[in-house]
């Protein structure tokens, strides 16, 4: 097996196939009135087609036919003709790739079908267990096709592209899997994202894939960032994500991103045609290539477990040679009907798994151990290291987790230590290299007093962290306020830790409430604060004061164990802060996602007088919280509202599609049969689920009957049915 050539050398191309192009013909810049003349219409259409073809030849096939100068000339000609005759600019015009327009904050949108993540396995044994689970589940429905499609796992940003009648209409990021950000304009600047599909396009297709930055482009970008005095990106994935979510599209374009397609979400065949998705993932990848997409390099159809394992080792051994970061392989059942049969758990597909490689480990010296105090008062040791490159990223700090970790691993200042970084995870110290320990290094003594306020720290039984419980500890306050404005809190863009630190040190901000009364003149008294920034902060804070969503405000408080999700549940249930503040542990525990520990933590938080005082302060300042809609509310009138639904057996349509339709009727798809299951829909060869459902007296519907129910309520299954 050879590594495919994925480098993008700009080959000087022969000027063939370009004889009919006259680069000089697009000169006039004045706007044309009325209908464009026929020859202009034809020219625009010709240029548009040609440019798109050359773009594909260059970026996707890596086989250019013309050189850059000619391409640019054609591009500018088209651009000026379109400026002159705006009605001629099609939604798939190659000039839309140019960028230059400013984006506002990114709007969000719900995915038509959820974008799942993958389960991980880390060893052959774990893979065998996963495969065995697939095998047993498949056998319930008849047979196990022991064939897999394997490709490298690309470490970038997952994106889905929706094409209608062959034209790119929308691009979404994965987001949390349910809701993504709309990044259509940014994706149009990526040369390997086809604006129009090649060949005979389906009526509608949602293509999923990864947007990556090649390693060499990443290094060049970081060099340029450093030269400009800007912060370098942590890794190619962050750089790709940052570039897609850029405000300035010309910057996005300059970042040299590559899109590689690996799967298909929604699909509808062309008008009434019989054709549907191919039978296997291997053929699906072919289809994607024929439609004009680049796919992950070195994908392979593997028969049986041995071939899969060989493939996984091949990619591991050649990992460094790939032009993009690879953090494992993805192994998918090749048969698409078997994929549909197995379906998804709440989080990930049952038919695919990521085989992750162990993180890279590198040696360096531990210079110091700093102990930080977090917003919950927890003391966290951080290793300050001799800077070292780990998997292409410079690491100078790493987490040591907690006191016991240092003790158990016997990590000492001055030691040579192994440092590990796995994907996005914060780098960590694996342990000391004892054979290289110098003389005179002594064990680390963990502080018994808070490094910020000097009060004694406590460690509760069964807890791993020592905590500073001084409510007025400056470090705890500072961290709480930092959290309050951070992304998990009110998300005040630009008000980063440095500014919060200055505001707190000046004494002007003592608690989160003080932020809401900041004025522009006050802010201007801070060094390096300009009028524009000061206004931006005050506007954002006023906006938050007047409209903040209750779930955001709850999450911003930084109550232990209450993250964004739990905050949402609490907001839907309690509707305002003071009701939440008065809730009892019992009533809190009635909620889904809230167990005894979380309930205790919430009550504990609101029992502290300072926190009560903060809530009152919010009220006095006129903080108004927006109502958080219960996502299920609008569904109440739907025919299957409040019912759970499960599909079993081989369905005639992909399971994901059937589930999406059921959701449209108000049902919630679940994965197992229990007494509470609302209904079971059975396809061909149903297995034990049917027996179990019957024995529990659950209503069972044939697929046909389910389809007519859908029809009755006007839910369209497309032509996949
Ligand atoms: S197939 C249901 N193939 O990894 C998901 N995913 O950690 C099936 N990813 O969300 C996706 N490389 O964004 C597939 N060759 C590849 C991939 C790949 C990267 C991403 C994908 C997924 C994430 C899970």
Task: Write the topology of this structure.
Blueprint: H1 38-60, H2 68-84, E1 108-110, E2 119-121, H3 124-140, E3 147-154, E4 157-164, E5 167-173, E6 179-181, H4 184-188, E7 204-213, H5 215-227, H6 236-244, H7 249-254, E8 257-268, H8 281-290, E9 300-303, H9 304-317, E10 326-333, H10 336-342, E11 352-356, E12 360-373, E13 379-390, E14 393-399, H11 403-409, E15 416-421, E16 428-432, H12 474-485, H13 497-505, H14 512-515, H15 520-524, H16 531-547, H17 550-556, H18 564-574, H19 577-581, H20 585-589, H21 596-607, H22 609-621, E17 644-648, H23 655-664, E18 668-669, E19 679-682, H24 688-695, E20 699-702, H25 703-712
Helix pairs in contact: 1-2, 17-18
Bound molecules: 2-(butylsulfanyl)adenosine.
